[in-house]
Amino acid sequence: MKSLVTCFIAALFLGGCTPPTKQRSEPVSVSSVTCNYNSQIAPAERAKDLLKLSKLLAMLKRQEGCTIDDLDNLKRKMSKIAAEKASELVQRGKLVEAEKWLQHKYAPLTLWKTQFVRGRIAAKRQQWGKAALFYNKALDLIAYLNAIGQKPSLIEIQKLYKLASETQLLAGISPSLRDGEPSGIMRDDLGIEIRKRPIPVQFVYDKTMLTDRGKKSAKELVKYLAQKQPNRITLIGHTDEHGGEAYNCKLSKGRALALKDYLVKIGKFSASVITAVGKGEQEPFDFYDLSRYTQEEIDQINRRVEFVIDGDGAYRNCLSTEL
Hints:
Structural class: alpha+beta
Strand order of the largest sheet: 3-6-4-5
Distance between the termini: 115 Å
């Protein structure tokens, strides 16, 4: 009874009291309870247990005080693990299972590696348009990493650039701009040296006439060149190895000339700034891995036109005689 009276008096003068039978605990800092799952995240990360990590991510989202950086850090770890798991499965031909690990639940952040694996899956299914789209998106993400000093190795970038180029040539599409800026293989900030860029412009078989799809790709090139405003443009035609050397040389230059005429007519570029060169079958495409394609696909990739802007102009026809 006496203690209750004492408590009441203390409440009047001090605004409260602590029962004498209990000790006042130290105040708990917010940081000690905020995002305090490292002890669980670390072993799950080492075990590459994406199911456990996805549950921990859900808990962090509900925990008061977790910052965007806290969440993004875990998302980045999960997405890297998911890309590694999916890549291993693609290598073993298990594409459906690979796609499972690339779902948002397990790969909540889009990384260049996740886009790269999605491109590999599409390429395995010969979905060349989808593969080219994913590979080019991966290149866009790499350009961002280059800007903040976290770029991948040059070998990885060169591999991705070649695969993006190959699948674009097979798909016959050329998305050169995104939001008005060069994207994918058309970028200049990938951190690798690019002298010639392939254009997936398709022609009627054994002729110099552009197909409807070829005209769409040519229009994309017009948009790109209009944005760059080069002082000099060199178009370099190539063929596959079928047919005679002289014939292929003539055909390759004829196709480069056909594209030049299209750029002059549709893009309103001056004919004097565009040079058309034919290389025939002499310079086949520098593939990343020939074993990925059938002979027909290899031939299709070799039948291409490349372009150079503001180069030194030192490109010669495959034959010494004028074509």
